Batch of 2 targets.
Target 1
Amino acid sequence: MNENHSNQLVRLTAAQLAAKLAAREVTAVEVVQAHLDRIAAVDGGDRGVHAFLHVNTEEALAVAAEVDAIRAAGGAAADELHELAGVPIAVKDLIVTVGQPTTAGSKILEGWYSPYDATVVEKLRAAKMPILGKTNLDEFAMGSSTEHSAFGPTRNPWDPDRIPGGSGGGSAAAVAAFEAPLALGTDTGGSIRQPGAVTGTVGVKPTYGGVSRYGAIAMASSLDQIGPVSRTVLDSALLHQVIGGHDPRDSTSLPDPLADLVAAARLGNVDGMKIGIIKELHGEGYQAGVEHRFNESLELLKQAGAEIVEVSCPNFKYALGAYYLIMPSEASSNLAKFDGVRYGLRVLPEEPPMTIERVMGATRAAGFGDEVKRRVILGTYALSAGYYDAYYGSAQKVRTLIQRDFDAAFAKADVLISPTAPTTAFKLGEKLDDPLAMYLNDVATIPANMAGVPGLSLPGGLADEDGLPVGIQLLAPAREDARLYRVGAVLESLLEEKWGGPLLDKAPELPAPELPAPSLAETVTSHGGSH
Amino acid sequence: MAAINRDDVAHLARLAHIEMSAEELDRMAGELAVIVDAVKSVSEAAGEDVPATSHPIPLNNVFREDVVGHTFTADQALSGAPDSDENRFKVPAILDEA
């Protein structure tokens, strides 16, 4: 296979790859190898994307070869292959996998191998989708920039000096950099949608309980949700259909049958639908270029026959505060299991006595990064006797108010719309010393997690002032994920018509130059330019 | 609501089993004070009559059949353990008898 062919393969969507595989125009081994080559070309090095913490070369090629053999043999087994069989995928390293390490982006789990697969991973294996590897994330999914990974940050394929969002920056960047057509993410306060927004990709947080969380290392159990990451709305629907549905091993898993999300994505019609602008989630505090692209999307939807209405969610102003009480409280409890006894790191104190308490203290001090420590301490505080009612109890009441706001809004509109994040991708390091500024990035995504409703982010274009991707967020009532795909697919096709192709066609070539341009003045001349 | 100070953080770090240096306690106290200040409005948001929501989509009484499901072998369960002995997790001393 020549390099050009390989370059073309990685730019195909999952749906396009599936069609080519089914028509036997290409083999699964060729498809997987093309993506492994792309990873080798763009992921490593000082200025590489660094989306992957582990690349699963051998197993991915073996699964691909198995798919090719089944197809070549024909017959019933070939007919029964899942439509995504042979289409490769990357998995966020918060989701456990047999045969590959799972770190959760933390030193405390470095080198750990899970003895079991997450339910979503079992489903990928059943569909014979080759797993390319495990993607980078903020430690235990705590962050909005992937800078809190113990294994170094991921770089945004649009600009290597900027963050790819977080916590699932690795999954979003892998998809944006054409290292994988699909990825799995997890979203507790926006960790699928905000990385999607800042990398120009699509990400979906399903209804709470719509996708099994069994095997996702828990941060905040009442908020966490696994979901799809892709370059198109249809591809997310295809992946959602693979991973969704009831799982008896997750007691919060919804028993409802999964709707036909792929059909919804293919329906493409918003005529007569009511789309609600959330008054509190745009305007002041949102970057001008974000606001501009948001308004442009509204105009396109209106032209396509949707009715745009305004809704007000007055209690959303408390959502961020309530989230930063509930999430750390649940996290402090969930992370208590990292005690240096059953798995992961054990660090002995420098001086005796070597009691379990002191071993735990030393292990957690060495194994957890700053952001994890901050959240565990904050959660321990919010759950302390004397503060519980004022903090955790009050935050749970706010959750009720947010649900009521959503109920009222969905009485007036079929779906809601807002920018996904208030700004485009910020610079690496810019908000690292200011945790609160980092948290503010999640202001538009958190309400969905608090109420359990589904949300989708899709690319809305580039901000005029910095040329970086802007995300548009759609929200639907609980269990109505299909509406997101229906509206998302329409908006995506209208925008791509306007751009003359996918937004990622406008992204710079990778690999990125080794050093930023200003300091390169002399070397560029001596190398005669790299492109 | 009271602000969070360095002594509070030291106490909380002990409860959470995270050893912290003096420098870390100073820094963490400062950062957490800012965060706690930013979230305190939450306590005034809802009235007495508003019920709490613990899970966004409540499912009550989720049961399964009382049958043996998948279980790990001892080797699998111990595969990630920092220390084990005779098919058991080996735990550091519980009491300080030194």
Target 2
Amino acid sequence: MTLAIQAEGLVKRYGETEALAGVDLSVPAGTILGVLGPNGAGKTTTVRILSTLLRPDAGRALVAGYDVVRQPVAVRACIGLTGQYASVDEDLTGFENLLLIGRLLEMSKSAARERAAGLLERFALTEAGGRPVRTYSGGMRRRVDLAASLVGRPQVLYLDEPTTGLDPRSRNQVWEIVRGLSQDGVSVLLTTQYLEEADRLADRITVIDHGRVVAEGRAEELKRRTGGQTLQVRPGDPADIPEVVRILTALTGTEPLTDGEAGLVTTLADDPVLLSALVRRLDESAIAVDDLGLRLPSLDDVFLALTGRPADEAAGKAAAPADTPAGTRERSAA
Amino acid sequence: MSALAEPGTAARPEASASRIGLLRGVRHGLMLADRSIRSVVRSPATLIDTIIQPVLFLVVFAFLFGGEVAGDWQSYLQTLVPGLMVQIVLYASVGTGLALNTDISKGVFDRFRSLPIARSAPLVGAVLGDVVRYAVALAVLLGLAFAMGFRVRTGPVSVLAAVLLALGLGLTLCWFSVLIGMVTKSPQAVPGIVMAVVLPLTFGSNIFASPETMPGWLEVWVGVNPVSHFVDAARALLLGGDALGAVLSSLAWMAALFAVLFPLALRAYARRTR
């Protein structure tokens, strides 16, 4: 397996504060790595080091086989960078921006023109290509930023919070583009505060907090490793909830969590026989249930377990749209 | 993770280069200079600054104060224009640090720095592009001045020398602007700081009034102020008289200022972009 990015023990200090306290990560060629973490976790610092904009105080990183400190020019020839801090000139048109980058990358004038026009078309910006970027909407801005990072056909692409502040439709467009690039064989490192984004796009996820990697793995692995399974019951008649709580307390030895509004009772389900035992007891008590099942924790739960903060609080704004069933928050927060 | 593999050797020769050659660096700088010129043309605020400032200074000072200072505004115009050449360039240099700081805070700089181009290219581009802006401002000033009745009493070579001297001063003092642009956090802070230095340099000089009319302490300052030497040189070059002494002391000042400001600005640039 070839590694597109391989970083070991990256450390970056700003005076007393340690922005990175030894980050390891690797991205196999052609895959997407999601780097997940709250604001200030060290995601952007990591990207800046891996894209040669910042020198690490310690540690080592190879990108496309080149050392980011010793062979920065070679690394830059292989990478594309998009995100909060890599932008285009707002006074130039979309076309002019892409043309300039093509020219800086030593393309001939005609090749650079062709490339710029091709990228604008691919990202549905042909019509807007002649207007100053200043006049673009947020989604168009992000697309032209992305296009700018692709002019040189990079093998490795960094996307630093590519969808922060975008509306759902624009976000979906960016996701489509990223998936397409990955299918074309581009290796992608994507930082995000959105659990949903990491869950949907990334082959593997690295969770960073306070400048350290706190977990690494596939989304499924992370979910299994941290939260454990939960069992959820929704009685047909909410009046049966106290009885369900009594039964579950008897079975597990701990009181389950109830969400009165959703009519849900949730408990940890480490014991594989719990489900069948519960079904038997509910049957004996003649309690009808609308819903009964085991579920893996969401990445929200994982994030909470790893960082000690809910994802949306850590992110300081609304996190991923709630794709988690109601009631799981209560359990996680307990 | 096991120990890292040894870095690969490059498949493409240009990729293995750890440095960008001088020639390519210059070409990248020129491409980026072209970009900053386009940028100025497109952004109305900067363009208006470049064109309005000379017009404003010329009109306000000649028509408003000319008669009071020199008896009639036509004769004041003769002494005013060479001085304004120096002032205009100093004012325009504020934009250099402002533009660089804006590029950094907006992330445009990082985009350029993530490309395999010379590290100095964005800086070279910004400064070269701004020299064009200074030249435009000077052209507007001289064009309007001629229309208002300003007459050169020397020859075209002397005029060219005066213009080059003013551009040289701009090219020297823009490093101060770059320095401020690099050490301030936000773009908004740049103009205030640069102007705090530029204002006493320009108004505390012989541009607008003769130093003999000033209180003693101010006359001393005007004598020390390097801007006065540049104004003397520009006046001599445009209106006649012995220019050599003033030109030489201007060049000496330029060399001294450059020797101090350029390394400071470069160090700040390297620090900001590390």
